[in-house]
TrEMBL record:
GO terms for molecular function: 2 iron, 2 sulfur cluster binding; chlorophyllide a oxygenase activity; metal ion binding. Residues 82-193 form the Rieske domain. The keyword S-adenosyl-L-methionine does not apply. InterPro entries: Cholesterol_7-desaturase, PaO, Rieske_2Fe-2S, Rieske_2Fe-2S_sf. It is found in: Membrane; Plastid, Chloroplast. Its main location: membrane. This is Rieske domain-containing protein.
């Protein structure tokens, strides 16, 4: 019988027969299932130095078997609250499908209040029809296929096809007749779901009663306030890829040039993990600051966390070019990861950016972004005015600020992650990261490797979808607009204004043509003025000039509105022209 080993550096499983030879020598009985510490270290140093292409091709994929200690330390993904959607985007009058953690769920509201939200598995126990296609009546969820009715606990209350009262009661009381029910919580403008059904979910929810961002909790409201609402977008990226990108600030001036940075004005900075620790429950926090007199080195962790260290080529990387740059000035900022979904960026007294990234289904993630401000921040008046102008209208902010940032790198990452999977999903071998700027990426991959365990949607059994064309990867409508009430309203207003512009332009054109036709008919009569003189007289009339102006303004305004409308559907992002 073949036993399987599991690689913590990737989600790919590599079956190895007992007694098989490794890349250095055959294992002793003691180390038959695991590399020895010395052998494992040697393998990783050789692989990461990448001295020759032959070396990379000949080495066996590095593997570490899951020991009992590591299995026990795996992060309990399904025991934590997961953000599902902004409450403002949900319609309490109809059920809504939610993909989360590889699960198909349906959320619905039984009484139209904030406490009336419920979450079920999106599957009727009768014939597996999606309950999200059903309707809500009298505080119960009705399946649209055969009319079965379920209460807020998931119990079946009515089966229209059974008339006999005793048989109906026996059928409804069967455990097979109920729907899986998941705990929900409304907090900080979001609907949260704990993706663990039944009594186990209720126990986990009771142990973690208050989900959300710490800075937005009641105790911190005298310091922080939420400057913008939650921007949400589904991205065709794996959860690990999305998180890796969020924790990589060094790509911003290049991937988002002209939107959120400038590739011609890059200020070299150094990063190091605070206290040199990456832990299962706390995650990690990184200082991002201008270089000091000596290059910062990502040092080996303490003895209890020494297994987190990366190979020497990545750990001891420095930013020498930055140290010699005369422009190495700037402010100190922090960013970090708090398991399971929160990434925080804090920039002094200016404020903070909070990002929640969650796995939804294989190859897809959902991103929540909000900006926070500090009550004690002392900003210039013009900067405050600029922030209010930029963030005052959610739809404009989404279209002109949030979407362009995500469009700047999503397509590249969509292709990049498939290349990594095709090469065995071994980031430590395939990534060459000699710069200190990759500290966040390394820290995230270490945490995922050592504590992630079987991450939902990243398991070996989860099938990755095929690569999509860029028009689908950057499809703003299906990834955001159709679920955002602010953007839907903006599209409606844009369509109304576009129709008014076309109507005004058409009416003005008709008025001008009618005047012109009258003048031309008069000019055609004998002994009348010349055609040129008649035309000049028409153009000199205030009403005619106004008609021409309205035609021009109407057409140009319509075109501008149509260009703005495209921001809610698809706008191509070509780096060569940025």
């Amino acid at each position: 019988m073949m036993h399987q080993k599991y690689s913590l550096l990737s989600e790919t499983r590599y079956p190895i027969k007992l007694g098989s030879r490794g890349p250095l020598e055959s294992r002793s009985r003691k180390t038959k299932y695991c590399h020895s510490k010395l052998e494992h270290t040697a393998l990783r140093v050789l692989q990461t130095e990448r001295e020759t292409e032959y070396l990379n091709e000949s080495l066996e994929k590095p593997e570490i078997c899951i020991t009992e200690t590591q299995a026990a330390d795996a992060f309990p993904w399904f025991e934590h609250w997961c953000p599902a959607a902004p409450v403002s985007s949900l319609d309490p009058n109809r059920p809504t499908h939610i993909s989360m953690m590889g699960l198909d769920l349906v959320v619905w509201n039984s009484d139209g209040t904030s406490s009336g939200w419920h979450c079920f598995e999106d599957m009727c126990p009768h014939r597996l029809a999606p309950l999200s296609e059903g309707r809500v009546e009298n505080g119960q969820l009705h399946c649209a296929y055969h009319g079965w009715q379920f209460n807020s606990k998931g119990s079946c209350m009515k089966i229209p096809q059974i008339a006999d009262a005793e048989k109906h009661a026996n059928s409804c009381s069967s455990s097979r007749c109920s729907v899986r029910n998941y705990p929900v919580n409304v907090s900080q403008g979001l609907l949260w779901i704990l993706p663990l059904p039944g009594p186990m979910g209720e126990a986990a929810a009771a142990a973690k009663p208050s989900p959300g961002v710490p800075e937005l909790e009641e105790a911190a409201k005298n310091v922080w306030y939420q400057r913008t609402g939650w921007f949400v977008r589904d991205l065709p990226l794996r959860f690990d890829t999305a998180m890796e990108n969020i924790l990589d600030p060094s790509h911003v001036p290049f991937a988002h040039h002209g939107v959120q940075g400038n590739r011609k004005k890059v200020v070299h900075r150094e990063m190091h993990i605070i206290d040199q620790k990456v832990t299962k429950d706390v995650g990690f926090k990184i200082v991002n600051e201008p270089p000091q007199s000596s290059a910062t080195t990502l040092k080996t962790a303490s003895a209890d966390t020494q297994h987190l260290t990366q190979d020497s080529a990545q750990i001891k990387s420095t930013s020498k070019s930055g140290a010699n740059d005369a422009k190495n000035t700037g402010f100190k900022s922090n960013f970090g990861f708090q398991p399971p979904f929160l990434v925080s960026y804090e920039v002094g007294s200016f404020g903070a950016m909070k990002v929640l990234a969650t796995p939804t289904k294989p190859g897809w993630s959902r991103m929540f972004v909000s900006f926070l401000g500090r009550h004690d921040a002392k900003l210039p008046w013009f900067l405050k005015a600029l922030i209010m102008l930029k963030e005052g209208n959610p739809a404009i902010e989404h279209a002109l600020a949030r979407h362009p940032v995500l469009d700047g790198d999503t397509y590249m990452l969509h292709l990049e992650e498939r290349k990594l999977l095709a090469r065995g999903n071994n980031w430590s071998r395939e990534y060459f990261m000699p710069a200190n700027a990759d500290t966040g990426v390394i820290a995230w991959r270490r945490w995922l490797r050592d504590f992630g365990g079987e991450v939902p949607t990243l398991r070996a059994t989860d099938v990755m979808p095929d690569a999509m064309p860029r028009e689908q990867v950057l499809d703003r409508y299906h990834q955001h607009t159709k679920n955002c009430k602010d953007c839907q309203q903006a599209v409606k207003i844009t369509d109304i204004l576009s129709g008014i512009c076309l109507a005004v332009a058409a009416l003005s054109t008709i008025i001008f043509i009618s005047k012109l036709t009258t003048v031309m008919s008069i000019a055609a009569q004998p002994h009348s003025t010349t055609l040129v003189t008649a035309l000049m007289s028409v153009l000199q009339q205030p009403s005619s000039g106004l008609a021409v102006a309205l035609v021009v303004v109407g057409i140009f305004t319509w075109r501008a509105l149509q260009r703005f409308r495209r921001n809610f559907f698809f706008t191509d992002y070509v780096h060569a022209f940025k």
